[in-house]
Prior knowledge:
This protein is mostly helical.
Amino acid sequence: MFEKNQILLGIIIGICVPIIGWALFQMLFEGLTTIGVMDEVTSGSSEGRIRTLALLGICSNIIPFEIYRKKRYDNTMRGLIFPTLIYVCIWVYVYRHLIMG
């Protein structure tokens, strides 16, 4: 169905990996809060925790990017960049009031 070195494959991976990464980090944070390693103040729907989880989810795109870089799949890497930049722009827009002061 997909070639290994295809922009569309990179776009699909770039869209899905941050969502999966966000969910995994959310479960990790909840688990650490439950066993008492992480402070309860940062749990729940606090803006700081959501902001951090979103950023960690976006950064999880580094993993497939590095895998495809080592394989020299340049088109797949290009495809990964598009959704990553869109996610970053959305993150900056949503949290601009905290970033810009």
